[in-house]
Write a structure and sequence with these properties.
Blueprint (H helix, E strand, L loop, with lengths): L1 H18 L3 E2 L2 H6 L1 H4 L3 E14 L2 E8 L2 E7 L9 E14 L2 E14 L1
Parallel strand pairs: 1-2, 4-6
Antiparallel strand pairs: 2-3, 2-5, 3-4, 5-6
C-alpha cells in the first residue's frame, strides 16, 4: 500500500516538473515559424551582442548560430559578450521605447554563464 502511494506521488511530481519546463528552441526556428511560437514560453540560449537599458528595465540582443533576437526585460541587462539562457514569451511585432524590435522575447527568467 505504501509503495503505491509513493509511486503515485512520484508520478504526480514528475508530471508537474516536466510540464513546467519551457520548450528550448533556436532563434532561427522562432523567426522561421513565428505563428507556432507566438505567446508561448520558450528558452533561447545565445550570446549578448547589443544592449540598452535604464532604471532596471531594458532590452538586449541575443545571438546564436541561427540568428538574432531582442529580449525585453524588467531586470537589468546582461553585459555584452555574456552567454545567456533567456526564458520568456515570444512576441512577433514588438515595439519598446519607441523602437521597433520586430520579433522579441518578453523575459521571465534568465541564466547567465
Amino acid at each position: 500500500m505504501k509503495t503505491r502511494i509513493f509511486a503515485s506521488v512520484l508520478l504526480l511530481a514528475c508530471t508537474v516538473f516536466f510540464t513546467a519546463c519551457p520548450q528550448e528552441t533556436t532563434i532561427g526556428r522562432l523567426n522561421a515559424d513565428p505563428a507556432r511560437y507566438r505567446g508561448k514560453e520558450v528558452l533561447v540560449i545565445g550570446t549578448v551582442t547589443n544592449s540598452f537599458g535604464a532604471l532596471g528595465q531594458g532590452a538586449y540582443e541575443l545571438s546564436d548560430e541561427t540568428g538574432k533576437l531582442w529580449v525585453v526585460t524588467q531586470r537589468g541587462v546582461p553585459a555584452k559578450g555574456a552567454r545567456v539562457g533567456a526564458v520568456g514569451k515570444y512576441i512577433h511585432g514588438m515595439t519598446w521605447a519607441g523602437r521597433n524590435l520586430g520579433s522579441a522575447l518578453e523575459e521571465t527568467d534568465r541564466k547567465v554563464r
